[in-house]
Amino acid sequence: MFSSRSIDKIVSSTLFLCGLLSILTTIGIIFALSKESITFFSKVPVWEFLLGTSWAPLLEPKSFGVLPLVLGTMMVVFISSIIAIPTGVATAIYLSEYASNRVKNIIRPSLEILAGIPTIVYGYVALTLITPALKILFPEIEIFNALSASFVVGVMILPMISSLCYDALRAVPRDLREGAYALGGNSFDVVAKIMVPAAASRILAAFILAISRAIGETMAVTLAAGANPQLTFSPLKSIQTMTSYIVQVSLGDTPVGGIEYLTCFAVGSLLFVMTLLMNSLSQVVLVRFQKIK
Amino acid sequence: MSGNVVISTKQVNMFYSGKQAIKDVTVNVYENLVTAIIGPSGCGKSTLLRSFNRMNDFVEGFSVHGDILYRGQNINAQDVTELRKRVGMVFQRPNPFPKTIYENITWGPKIHGRKDNLDEVVEDSLKRAALWDEVKDRLHSFAFSLSGGQQQRLCIARTVAMKPDVILMDEPCSALDPKSTTRIEDLINDLKKEYTIVIVTHNMQQAARVSDHTAFFYEGEMVEFGETDSIFTNPKKKQTEDYITGRFG
Ligand SMILES: Nc1ncnc2c1ncn2[C@@H]1O[C@H](COP(=O)(O)OP(=O)(O)O)[C@@H](O)[C@H]1O
Ligand SMILES: [Mg+2]
To answer: What tens digit of pLDDT does each residue of A15-28 get?
Structure first.
C-alpha cells in the first residue's frame, strides 16, 4: 500500500506540524500578553509598576506597584526550595546507593502519589492542618500565611526534585560508579565525590525546573497564603503571590478591558519574563559546568 | 605449580537470579604470576573475575555458593572496602573519573585518608603505569583529553596508587588499538614483579604472551587449568585444543 518512504514522509511531516503547533502557541501567548500589557503600560508607567511598593489595583485609590507580589512569590519559592532541595537530593541519593529494592518499591510509588495529588488539596491541607500546627510554635501566625503555603509547595516539588535527581544519578555511567567502588570507596565516597559531581548539570537542571514549578504554583498558595499583597519579609503574615493575584482577578467580576483586567496581563508578562530569564541563566550555568568538566 | 596462593575458590557456583553462570569451579591464583582466564564470550570469565573483589554485590539477584578465599580468609568475612583496596580492578573500557589526571590518581589514597605525599604517589604510580613521561607536563589537565590507551594506563596507575596486592583486569585491551595493546602487555610483564595479576581475555595470543597460568572456561565450567606453555602446546582436553586452535569461540 504505502511505501516505507511515503510513511516516513507522513511521520516526519506530522511531527513537524506538532513542533510548529508548539511554536505557534508560544508566539500566540507572547502576542496576547504583550498586546494587553502595552495598553496597560500606556496608562501606568513601567517604573511605577516595577518599583512601586504598594499593590492595590482593585481599591480606591488605586496603586500599581508590583513589588509586594514579587516579594510574596520569592518568599514562597525560597522557603519551599530550602525545604525541598536538600530533602529531594537526600532522597535521590538514598534511593540510588543505599535503599534495598524492597524499600525502593515503597518510596518511589509514594513519591508518585505525592506528585499526583491535586494542588488544591495541598492548599486545603495547609490551611486546616499545617497552619494550626504552626500556631503552636508561632502563636502570632496569621490564618493565611506564607509559611504554611511554602511548606506544602515544598512537599509538592519534592517528588519532582527527587525523581529527576535520581534519574540524573542513574544516568552516570555504570563504569564510573564501579570504578569508584573498585578503589575501595564506600557508598558515601562514591555518591558524594563521583556521582553527584558527574550528574551536577542534570541535578542543577532539576532544581531550576522545580523552582519554576514553585513560581508558577497557584492553587495551594491562593488558598493558604491569602490575598494580602504587602511588602513583608515575615513568613508568618498573609501575602499574595503573582499567580494568586491573577486567580483573584480572573474569578472576580472585573470588566474586560478595564485597568483591573489589564493588570493581569502585566503581572503575567512579568512572570513570563522571570521564568525566561531563569531558564536562560540555567543554560549559561549548564554550558559553564560542562566546560569545567 | 607452586608458590603462595593468593586467591582461591573451592567448588564455587554462581547464579544470576537462579540462572547458573559458574559451575563447580576450583582454582588457585599464585603470587607474582599472571593468571589468564580465557574462553568464548558468555562463558563466565567476567563473572568469576568480578567475584574476586565482590563487584557482583551490585548485581541484583546474584548469588555465590561455596568459598572464595583471599590470602586464606573468606572474602565475605572481610570488610569489602579493605578487600577492594588489596584487590584492585581495571575494567574493559577505560573509565577515568571526570577529573584531572592528578585527581584521578589521588582519589583513592585520599578517601582512605592516607597521609603520604600525594605528589610522590602521583609520580610513582604514573611511572609504574609507564605514563609519566607522556603526562608529566599536564598533570592538571582533564583525564578525557588523553587517548584511549593512555586513559587505560591512567586507570592502571589509579589502581597501583592504592598499593594493592592483586590487580584484576577484565579484557583491558579490548577497546584499544594494537599499539596501545602492546604497551599494556609490556606493562603487565613489569607489574607482575610486584603484584599478582589476573587477566580476562578473549585474545589467545595475548594470554600466551602475558600469562604464566591459564584457565580455560567453557559454559561456566573450568575445563582446564595449568601452566600457559603446556595449555597452549599440549592441551589435555579436546575442548581446549579446539578452542586454542580456533575451531570455535
Ligand atoms: N548482570 C547479569 N545479569 C544476568 N545475567 C548475567 C549478568 N552478567 C552476565 N550474565 C550471564 O552470565 C553468563 C556469563 O557472563 P560473563 O561472565 O559476562 O561472560 P564472559 O565475561 O565470559 O563473556 C552469560 O550467560 C551472561 O548472559
Ligand atoms: Mg566479559
So the answer is: 999 999 999 998 99
Chain B partners of A175 at a C-beta cutoff of 8 Å? 91, 93, 95
Averaged over A221-243, what is the pLDDT? 92
Contacts 24+ apart (CB under 8 A), A111-117: A111/A158, A111/A159, A111/A162, A111/A163, A112/A159, A112/A163, A114/A155, A114/A156, A114/A158, A114/A159, A115/A156, A115/A159, A115/A160, A115/A163
| Long-range Cβ contacts of B108-114 (<8 Å, 24+ apart) | B108/A183, B108/A184, B108/A185, B108/B158, B108/B159, B108/B161, B108/B162, B109/B161, B109/B162, B111/A183, B111/A184, B111/A185, B111/A186, B111/A189, B111/A193, B112/A184, B112/B85, B112/B162
Q: Buried (b) or exposed (e) across A32-58, using 16+ Cβ within 10 A?
A: ebeebbeebbeebeeeebeebeebebe
Q: Where do we find the cell 532544581?
A: A207
Q: Does domain B5-244 have CATH number 3.40.50.720?
A: no
Place of cell 491562593: A222
The answer to whether residue A182 neighbours chain B at the CB level (below 8 Å) is yes
For the domain made up of A55-292, give the CATH fold.
MetI-like fold (1.10.3720)
Q: Which of A101, A184, A198 sits opposite B112 (nearest CB)?
A: A184
Rounded Cα distance between B35 and B18, Å, is 28
- Position of cell 560542562? A290
Q: In angstroms, rounded to a whole number, what is the distance separating the alpha carbons of residues A124 and A120?
A: 6
- Please list, residue by residue across B100-134, b when 16 or more beta carbons sit within 10 angstroms of its beta carbon and e when fewer do: bbbbbbbbbbebeeeeeebeebbebbbebbbbbee
Q: Which chain A residues are Cβ-neighbours of B53 within 8 angstroms?
A: 182
Query: Do residues B231 and B217 make contact, with C-beta atoms less than 8 angstroms apart?
Result: no
Domain edges within chain B: 5-244
Span A93-109, mean pLDDT? 93
CA of B46 to the centre of ligand 2 (A): 4
Alpha-carbon span B232 to B249, nearest angstrom: 16
Report the DSSP pairing between strands B5-16 and B19-30. antiparallel
Residue A258 in this model has a pLDDT that exceeds 90 = no
Cα separation of A144 and A140, whole Å?
12
CA distances from B147 to A8, A109, B34 (A): 40, 44, 26
Distance B21 CA to ligand 1 centre (A): 7
| Domain ranges for chain A | 4-42, 55-292
For the whole model, what pTM was predicted?
0.86
